[in-house]
């Protein structure tokens, strides 16, 4: 068991190393020049200024030396400094982190709760109208572009009904309170959460159906337990283990969705920062965000694997 | 047998019919649409639905109906070419890894793992940013993103079949590795790969739409379903010209839904033991 965990951790290290090379390479070969974009071409001695600035940013050194110094700082948690603002990338990302975590966390909770409930209902009513209807709805959930749902929600609930604000995380010029943040969170949170219900519903349904055929359920029924007890105590509890691993599967989807939804709602999180950095060719910020998302997913996959090996002792460790 | 089972799957039948209609109308767009998709008419800006403009006109007076049909050509083209490229690379890599095993397998599957580590949109955006934005970079980025999934499926099937008797028999009768892979093994993965490819096409349409919506995919004035939705980022368009975004959005949903239905039917038809409800 412990050898398995240690091995899984050790395998991740060379993987992260290769990922860091890819990330650096992508940012390095990005066309466009952030330095040239910062300096007005009309200013006298524009070329000299650009040259000095490149020297300050370390852009005049060889690619290898740039990579090694970036990696050296990276492992210490320093992601470098933005070409555009000069601020530390680590603290820029850190400042945006809470908004993204609030958005992703609340929509994940929402889709898990609703998805698991609907999945159990669907499985209990297997091959009946409810099950069939939920399956079709699940397909629709997988087919709607997430930003389109966002636009529809803004149109209906912000523009037509005026129940919620169209964008941002708080009213301009006012202090951010919990109430106002929640008020701004409803539409982007729903846009991101609603479509992922389908994912959790599907897995819960399959998992419940499998457990229902299990011996322990037959035993529980035959010893005369109340049907409600059988469902809540034996079926749902046993079915939730495999569903927990779906969270690892949902996370990359959630990150992709958050990038688009933050753009639609101008939600000041990491996704919005990423798109701005791409448009401004701000390589250190781009590298920081791509690296962070990859590390996060490696870590979550690792945790789900380890958690699963605890839940299910049948997992083989060789 | 499989064809019959497929056709009996109600949702799949519905999906295929919708797909045929959508594909035919976007392929025949130049014939069907009587307005040019890019012709600007400043005297007829933001006009509502009419006989002449069944989906209205946009902020520069271009015909939305024509743009939706022509945009569909781009969106479907991206999906089909992406699926073809991803299949070509994925099947080759998967077959080599699964057949030869050992260190070749380890190296190739590590590459697969690494690509699959990035969230889809993060990798695609980083890739298109390195290239000139447009159809070509969109297709390349989506293919780079998606070949590993095909490779994983093919490799798994190959590993499973590697020690089966028909492969050992072919080996002992002196068939070369190439013949075994192409003649004996590949025909057996056509089913799972076909199912994966339909899902991949649905996914490619959604990702192209997201990318173009962010302004990083297909570039205006060339229409695509995704970049037509870009205009809806302006509150004015969103509130007052809803036909500009409702129609392309609906076409995306209906097409992707139809592909997903067809893919589900295909999976059930090819694997009758499976239970997907």
Percent of sequence in beta strands of chain B: under 5%
Query: What is the overall silhouette of chain A?
Result: globular
Largest sheet of chain A: none
Q: Determine the mean pLDDT of chain B.
A: 84
SSE pattern of chain B? HHHHHHHHHHHHH
- Structural class of chain B, by secondary structure, is mainly alpha
- Indicate the radius of gyration of chain A in whole angstroms: 24 Å
Q: Pick out the low-confidence regions of chain B.
A: none
Number of strands of chain A: 0
Helix content of chain A: over 70%
Number of strands of chain B: 0
Tally of helical segments of chain B: 13
Radius of gyration of chain B: 22 Å
Oligomer: heterodimer
Query: Mean pLDDT of chain A, as a whole number?
Result: 80
Number of helices of chain A: 13
Structural class of chain A: mainly alpha
Main interface: chain pair and counts: A-B, 55 and 43 residues
Quick gist of this model?
Chain A is an all-alpha fold and 318 residues long.
Overview of the structural elements:
The complex is a heterodimer of chains A (318) and B (277). Chain A has 318 residues and is mainly α. Chain A is 76% helix and 0% strand. Chain A has helices spanning 2-28, 34-38, 46-57, 63-75, 89-124, 129-143, 146-160, 178-194, 197-212, 215-222, 227-265, 270-280, 283-311. Chain A is globular, with a radius of gyration of 24 Å. The termini of chain A are close together. The relative contact order of chain A is 0.14. The model of chain A has no long low-confidence stretch (mean pLDDT 80). Chain B is an all-alpha fold and 277 residues long. Helices cover 73% and strands 0% of the residues of chain B. Chain B contains 13 helices and no strands. Chain B is elongated and about 75 Å long. The mean pLDDT of chain B is 84. Classes of the chains: A mainly alpha (318), B mainly alpha (277). Chains A and B meet through α1, α6, α7, α11 and α12 of A and α5, α6, α10, α12 and α13 of B.
